[in-house]
Amino acid sequence: MEKPAVTDVPLNELLRRRWSPRAFEPRPVEKEVLRRIFEAARWAPSAYNEQPWRFLLASRDQEPTFSLLLGCLVEQNQVWAANAGALAVGVTRKFFTHNEKPNRHAHHDLGLAVAQLTLQAVAEGIFVHPMAGFSLERVRQVWSVPEIYEPLVALALGYPGDPDTLGEDLRQREYAPRERRSLEELVFSGAWNDPFWK
């Protein structure tokens, strides 16, 4: 299933097709495809070219690693993410390497890396569902993540599956129309809440 965005102006097809499904086909994502997806993340821009992101990655054919990563998700996410082809956790280094001062841009930079890997994934026929619902402490414990790093986002990656395999609540969300705030609510000029486009 695909759910392309209905946009107000024409966009690149990868941007229109990108969405975050919960229905995945329960098969691994090939290692060479994962390599291309994470290569896209590697080339994301970052403050001072710090590249503060790191990823913990498990393909569904890598037991028990996949199950360990799945077990870090909150129960509601485990229900559907168990069918993903791969799971990952994005981690940021909290301090710059050149001076060990706090890097307040690290979260932003990880976001850019995730955005790039997500678009490359769509080009590969793979969809990515980012999740806030996971245990930071469990990830830190299971993977011995050093204190200078912060687990920030979990990702389910995989081939799209049949939404009818989901429970009723998730199925309804899968079929629901995609919605976004208008540009007038998002882009201002001159003063706060003064829309750039009027």
3D architecture notes:
With 198 residues, the protein is α+β, with helices and mostly antiparallel strands. 32% of the residues lie in helices and 15% in strands. The chain contains 7 helices and 4 strands. The protein has helices spanning 13-17, 31-42, 65-70, 75-81, 106-123, 136-142, 168-175, and strands spanning 53-59, 86-93, 127-131, 149-158. It has a 4-stranded antiparallel sheet with strand order 1-2-4-3, with helices on both faces. Helix 2 packs across helix 5 (106-123). The longest helix is centred in the middle third of the chain and has 18 residues, at 106-123. The radius of gyration is 18 Å and the shape is globular. The model has no long low-confidence stretch (mean pLDDT 97).
What's the short version?
The chain is α+β, with helices and mostly antiparallel strands and 198 residues long. Helix content is 32%, strand content 15%.
Unreliable runs: none
Helical amount: 25-40%
Structural class: alpha+beta
Number of helices: 7
| Topology, number of strands | 4
Write down the Rg: 18 Å
The mean pLDDT is: 97
Please describe the structure with a list of short key phrases separated by commas or semicolons.
198 residues, alpha+beta, 4-stranded antiparallel sheet, globular
